[in-house]
Amino acid sequence: MMRIGILSDTHSFIHPRISEFFKDCDEIWHAGDIGDYKSAETLSKFKPLRAVYGNIDGGDIRRVFPKDLVFTVERVKVVMTHIGGYPGYYDKHAIELITKEKPKVFVTGHSHILKIMYDKRYNLLYINPGAAGKYGFHKSITLVRFVIEGDQMKEMEILDIERYINENIKE
């Protein structure tokens, strides 16, 4: 059994409640737009980190993290990329990845919109954790956690933190 925490679009900001929500997780998955290496380092010192780079990430992040990540946890194959669209509206790159890899879980970020749904066409669980940073149009900071046991995903939970435009939270 593995407990997984997923976030995306931190844009160089690690919210203080991330550590509380992910404290029992075995791994953290970051779906891109990390923002800076310091943020990735903060997360990886807390828990093992799997991450992909996003469109705002510079060379420091791109040298360490790939565009796409394909891996297996327990008996669940996962594909993660930053820009992928969503079921029925995947971009070309996402369709190529999904068709080639046939994952059971597809994780993407970029939209800043939390969306978790089962995709019947590709027989996979789609997860976009929304945005965990304070920059962007989103009204909430969202994080996702769940359990993978064998070939099953269960106990899906969401943390939704109201975001204030003039947020004064310090790192």
Describe what this molecule looks like in 3D.
This protein is of the alpha/beta class. The chain has a single domain (2-162), classed as 4-Layer Sandwich (Purple Acid Phosphatase, chain A, domain 2). The chain contains four helices and ten strands. The protein has helices spanning 17-21, 37-46, 59-62, 92-101; strands at residues 2-7, 27-30, 49-51, 68-73, 76-81, 105-107, 114-119, 124-129, 140-149, 152-162. A five-stranded mixed β-sheet has the order 3-2-1-9-10, covered by helices on one side. Strand 2, helix 2 and strand 3 form a beta-alpha-beta unit. The chain is globular.
Radius of gyration, taken over Cα atoms and rounded to an integer in Å: 15 Å
Mean pLDDT: 94
The poorly predicted ranges are: none
In the CATH hierarchy, the third-tier topology is known as Purple Acid Phosphatase, chain A, domain 2
Q: DSSP helix count? A: 4
Percent of residues in helices comes to 10-25%
Q: What spatial form do the alpha-carbon principal axes imply?
A: globular
CATH-derived architecture: 4-Layer Sandwich
The number of domains: 1
Helix-strand sequence:
EHEHEHEEHEEEEE
The side-by-side strand order for the widest beta sheet comes to 3-2-1-9-10
Spatial separation of the terminal alpha carbons? 32 Å
CATH class: Alpha Beta
